[in-house]
UniProtKB/TrEMBL annotation:
The keyword Lipoprotein does not apply. InterPro entries: MannP-dilichol_defect-1, PQ-loop_rpt. Keywords: Membrane, Repeat, Transmembrane, Transmembrane helix, Transport. This is Mannose-P-dolichol utilization defect 1 protein homolog. Its main location: membrane. The chain crosses the membrane at residues 126-142, 222-246. Belongs to the MPDU1 (TC 2.A.43.3) family. SMART domains: CTNS. It comes from Entomortierella parvispora.
Length: 275
């Protein structure tokens, strides 16, 4: 089977010449390896597409309310730090973009949210410094230069060694998890998920679960796999809490109610006196 050029080109770009010939041209659907690879690529592209919009509702909500009240600045700082390190690590490792592309979009969206949070707090100078620092930090981590020697060998130099970057990538695992634990505890304490976005929670869970599969299929990296496995576990807990507390709303004691109850008791006393 021959696909038109405008369909063949992207198909080959996604699954490669070998698997394209096997699955599309030869109809060899017993080629398990190519089928697994094709599924992985499809999932990867779906995750990247989801990552491109996952935090757009949160951005819109902040802009409409003109406040970021209730959103933890330290949590977003930690998450953005982890995203910047992970993005630089994957680029330096030359991993397929389908295995980490959503990290790029989440990083951009996090930077926008950080900027809005600080802007609506009246800290525009701090916002500029924080955003500039993250961009500068990511540039340092991700930049490398390859030089071809006279003997044909290629020498790669970078400001941050791959060994140091690997250590930083390993550190992003506890950082990412630490940012989820307070939210899980808060949900359990309140028996409610408050203002959490269901779209974001379930998208994160599905994405991390799919990332386990794509990493096993396309990337031979224990550090990245461990991070996605643990992230899936914690995202699963959040998704279960979202389902469990779906109809619950966070209720807090209201002082007005207390006054109202006092007033009603006074009324009862007056009625007794009249009797």
């Amino acid at each position: 089977m021959q696909l038109p050029f405008f369909l063949k080109t992207p198909a080959v770009a996604i699954i490669g010449d070998t698997c394209y010939s096997s699955l599309i041209e030869d109809f060899n659907y017993r080629d398990v390896e190519c089928i697994k690879y094709g599924i992985s690529k499809g999932l990867g592209l779906g995750i990247v597409a989801g990552g491109a919009i996952v935090k757009v509702p949160q951005i819109i909500k902040i802009v409409q309310a003109r406040t970021a009240k209730g959103i933890s600045l330290p949590s977003y700082m930690l998450e953005t730090f982890a995203c910047v390190v992970s993005l630089a690590y994957n680029i330096r490792q030359n991993n397929p973009i389908s295995t980490y592309g959503e990290t790029f979009f989440v990083t951009i969206q996090n930077l926008i949210i950080l900027g809005l949070m600080l802007h609506y707090s009246g800290k525009n100078t701090t916002a500029f410094m924080v955003l500039s620092s993250f961009l500068f930090f990511g540039n340092i981590l991700g930049r490398s230069t390859s030089v071809t020697q006279y003997d044909g060998s290629v020498v790669t130099t970078a400001w941050v060694s791959k060994e140091a970057l690997t250590v930083l990538q390993g550190a992003t695992i506890p950082i990412n998890l630490f940012s989820k634990i307070p939210q899980i505890v808060e949900n359990h304490r309140n028996k409610s998920t408050g203002q959490l976005s269901a779209f974001t929670i379930f998208n994160y869970f599905a994405g991390s679960l799919a990332r386990v599969y794509t990493t096993l299929t396309e990337v031979d990296d224990v550090i990245i796999l461990s991070g996605f496995l643990l992230s899936t576990l914690f995202n699963c807990i959040l998704a279960l809490q979202m389902a469990l507390y779906w109809n619950n709303s966070s209720a807090s004691p209201v002082k007005v109610g207390e006054k109202g109850s006092t007033g009603s008791s006074d009324t009862k006393k007056r009625v007794k006196k009249l009797d």
